[in-house]
Design goal:
single chain, alpha+beta, two-stranded antiparallel sheet, 1 helix, 2 strands, elongated
């Protein structure tokens, strides 16, 4: 395989079965809920900045 340039490649991967990832709310969203507790978000797909994002995308290309 030669060199390829994929646009938004990290966003094309899938989290593994049973893998659950949470993060803080992004800037511009309410960070405190109506009950006064901090809000967190559940990540459904790998995103830029996640340690495992590149590996998850590679697994979608090469499932070994």
């Amino acid at each position: 395989m030669r060199r390829w340039d994929f646009v938004a490649a990290y966003l094309q991967g899938e989290l593994e079965q049973g893998e659950i990832v949470y993060c803080h709310a992004p800037p511009g969203y309410a960070t405190i809920g109506a009950d006064g507790r901090p809000r967190i978000c559940r990540v459904e797909k790998p995103i830029y900045g996640m340690a495992q994002a590149g590996r998850r995308w590679q697994r979608s290309l090469f499932p070994w």
